[in-house]
Amino acid sequence: MVFLLSYWSYKNRVYDWDMPGYIGCLFQREYPASPEKVHQYTYTSIRKEASPYQFKDISGLVQPNKAVQFFKQDANAFSEQLPYYQIKIGYNIAVLFLYKLGFSPPHSVLLVSIISYFLSGLILFFLFSILFPGKNILSVLLTVGILILPPMRALSNTPVPDMFSLLFLLIFMMGLLRKWESWKIFLVLLCLILIRPDYIVFALTYLVTSFGFTYFSENRKIDLNYILQGIFFLALYLFIIKYYHFPGWKDVFYDTFIDRRPLISAQPANFTFSYYLHFLFFKLINFKKISLAVFFIMGLIYYISKDLWIRIFSVFIFANIYLKFMFFPASAESRFFFGYLLMLFLMLCYAVSKKYNGFQLRKIA
Fold this sequence. Notes:
With 365 residues, the chain is mainly alpha-helical. It has one domain. It is 74% helix and 0% strand. Helix 11 packs antiparallel against helix 12 and helix 17 packs antiparallel against helix 18.
């Protein structure tokens, strides 16, 4: 079933505005001194595979977008956009790996999401099998039910790193629930930051949560490992954004929510803090569907479980949903928050499993 759903994702793959950016990163490695070649090869490779309608969409003609049209026409404008994509090192390495195996540039980008979707399905089934042993039908139903959800299907066939990062969020949850050693969790967090550097917030809040839980509920000793890991992650994040000349959060916010600039260098990303707060409040009102789901799951977790560890780490996941929203208030884009919502649901399943006789669910069966 997971394979069939993955095949559906492949047959319904989407060529959207993000694809040129990641393919541009691919060719930037080969032609670092020639923005014109990078620009030409990027759009030529997409034109070969995308339908005429899809190519028009990528060129900003279906939903008229002057900035996207300018990226298609001007190599320098396109080149200025690449740092937004280059900082996602882990994702670009995965794309490069598939490209070196012989896949075309567009397929290399799309297959990362499709393969991640397939592997995520396997991990979900594995997790549910651990949580509900002997309940194979339930595990299958839960796995398939999650895989066919609209946000999950949207992530599975689009050229963005979100499905790839969701795969590692599931690996993180597997490690969290199975109480992996700290160095294994460290490696998973490292991968997440390399895939999307904005996961620095997730990594640091996890370290703070783990440090606090260990200190106050277990040994009252300061574990330097958490501090050293936090310093390393922060240094890595700063290195990535400096090395790739990443414009910064303010530019991302401006280009995403205010006005997409054709030339970043020609127009500063100016907006006031009061504008940001007003915009955030407006978007928060439109965030009600995700908020309703989040508060409902949190309420169930706290009702079902009195376990301090479950409650504390549920709050950690809950907090990251709204921290993510504060930095990137895309209330209409559930793909940015779906991974955290899925983690919270898995924590609920863990709470249910622990309550009903150590993962056996005898009282429910």
